[in-house]
Every structure is written in C-alpha cells, then in structure tokens.
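Example record

One chain of 215 residues, shown exactly as stored in the release files.
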Amino acid sequence: MSVRVDAICIGLPKPFNGAELSAIDKRPLEGKATFRSFGIEGDMVADTKHHGGIDMAVHQYPTDHYHAWNEELGGHCLLTGPAPFGENLMAAGLTEDEVLIGDRFRLGTALLEVSQPRQPCWKIEHRFGRRGMVARILSNHNCGWYYRVVEEGEAEAGDELHKIEEGHDAWSVARVFAALYDLAATPNRDELQAIAALERLTLKWRGKARNKLQS
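Predicted structure tokens for this chain:
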C-alpha cells in the first residue's frame, strides 16, 4: 500500500486566541523535510502539554475528508488551502478505517510508525469559526492520526508513503478512536483490555483504555 504525499507542512506558534499561541496554521515546505524523533525540523508546537513529543511527532489528516467537510460546513476557504486541520502530511488514499495502530510507513528515507489517533480539541472549531466540528469528528471517527519517527530521514512533496509493515491486526485508528471517544460506542471489557495491551499504541491512550475498564 502506498500513496503520494502532496505536501509536507510545518508551522511556528502564532497568536491564535487572544494571548494564546498555536502552530495549527501550517504551510507547505519547499524542498526536503528532515524528520527527527521530535518531529519535522522547522515545525513546532505551542502547547507542549497536549501536543508534540516523540509519540506525536508527525500528524496526518486524510485529504479524502475535505469534500465531506466542505458540504458539512457549506463551503470554507480553509479547505482550499494547505493543512486546514494543522496536519503535517497532506495525502489522499489512506483513511482511519484502513490504517492500523502500529503500521509502519517508509517516506523518503524516514520510517514512520502510527502511534495513536488525534484527539480533536476546540482549536479546530476556533480556526474554522464553526461550532460542532469536534462532535462530528467524535461520531464520524475522521480524526487523523500521529506517527512516531522510528528512523530519522528526509522526504519531500511527491514522495510515496509506502507501508512496509502491518501494525496491530484489526485495530484500526478508527476502531481505537471510537472505542475511547465516541459516546455512542459500547466497547466490551475484552476490547478495552485488548486496546490497553497494544504495544505500539501510546501509553497515554493505553491508559485511557485502562481508565474505562475501571469505570
């Protein structure tokens, strides 16, 4: 399985909501991007408590979802520009139902591993100026995902994101996200125990599964 990466996007923290900063506004990088364990060189996060780090080094959001969002929102200028959801990788052909936790992809000379779904926050709605988007993501599971960088390297727009190793069988990004965040989902005890045991899922998300077990 492989797809073409149309753009690799980076951004720096900027004023976002009053005095609060955010790096959700990203722009395509010209030339080669360098992927480090902490992320892409030149890309930063403002809220280091909830974003960034080795388990959330690179973010991908499927451009496949843009059309549905455009219809849902009645059109929006952000959806015609780069990285509307603050994603680092813009690519079509891979969605949350198809990508497994722990899948490994070669991009240029870098090796990326799917580490967790992306938990949506209020910044998406603030950026778009539309309420209800987070609720739609929670119910539709079109959340995007993060990678950790297993092998540092370089890549550029136009390179193929090529899957070289399968992750945790049957545990797609969408399934894990639904089990832990969709209020309409009713995961059973065995499913939650299985999620808590996924070795390539981040400790934070495995902890979410354990907390659901206890509650």
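Notes: DSSP finds six helices and 13 strands in the chain.
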